[in-house]
Write a structure and sequence with these properties.
356 residues; alpha/beta; four-stranded parallel β-sheet; 12 helices; globular
Length: 356
Amino acid sequence: AAHALRVNGKRISHLHGNPDEAHVRDALSSALSGKMPNVGQPEKISGQLADVDKVKNSLAKLNGLTIGAIGDAPAGFTPCTYDEEALKKSFGLNIINKSIPEIFADIAAVPLDKESAEYSDACQAQPSLKNVPEKQARVNASTRVALDNWIRANDLSAIAMRCWPDFAVDLGACPCGAMGRTATSGTPAACERDVYGAVTMLILEALGSGTNYLVDTVDLEEDENIIRIWHCGSAATTLAVDPNNATQFIHCNRKLGVAGNFPLKTGPVVLVRLDTDIDPANQSKLRLVMTSGESLSAPNRFQGNTATVRTSAPARQLINGLIHNGFPHHTVVAWKDIRAEVRRMAEYLAIPLTEW
């Protein structure tokens, strides 16, 4: 919502809490009197820059690559819209499109033997899949085969696919498992047709991040300086705390298979997002945000894929900064420190970077 407000020229104030909390009631009363709440933002930071030639060589690998976008952005999801010209100008990336009816036709056309082979392979890789209703798991198997065929036929380097509500309503399954299998095989896969999310994943991999994941920030524990990052179950199983036991289950709200249900691995993390910029003075038409922290050993707090992160910046101010500045709900989490590379890339491409 904050992103949608920003791209439509609106200002954003953020208040975190429950309506029955005293500080929330007081802040709302003040807002009605014209004094908007503001807990502040983290201090912006800068740091070491990577070697410029190294980063230029990494960016050169992106030139000419193609991302496949399936379907339209969900209604109201302004972060999932994109400027193809800006991506071409800065990174040399191409976008090709496929509609939801077209991918559904591809899925329906998958031969039974191919579907069965993928289903068998997926069950062998993660035996917990056998506990998911087989019909739903087989829809995921056919989806995985159809995606792989499209990726291979068009030499795609990443995909971004509209997933809800179409798959659940029309096919009776959720494709998170197929997306996770795609990511595990080495092709970044972003849900909710988030092209900039897929681009961010691809950029970070080019800069040396290794496999990464597109997440929402969904929880804040200010006293512990903790946030929780999550998505509904499309993470590569290699990102699990225990990759050999990356449980495959049903989607958290659709109650349909298949979605991963396992905590994300621990260790230092970096969160990055490429986004559109509405500043007319910014010729790149893009902006970046970046922060860091430590993924802690913790239970999988929310069904799907969760990491509990102690942030380097003050957590409450970090959340306020993201919302106040209208940054997207999606960021990409990486488990390798590529901040120096991101800083140099931003400088080299003249893309404004907000780092907290």
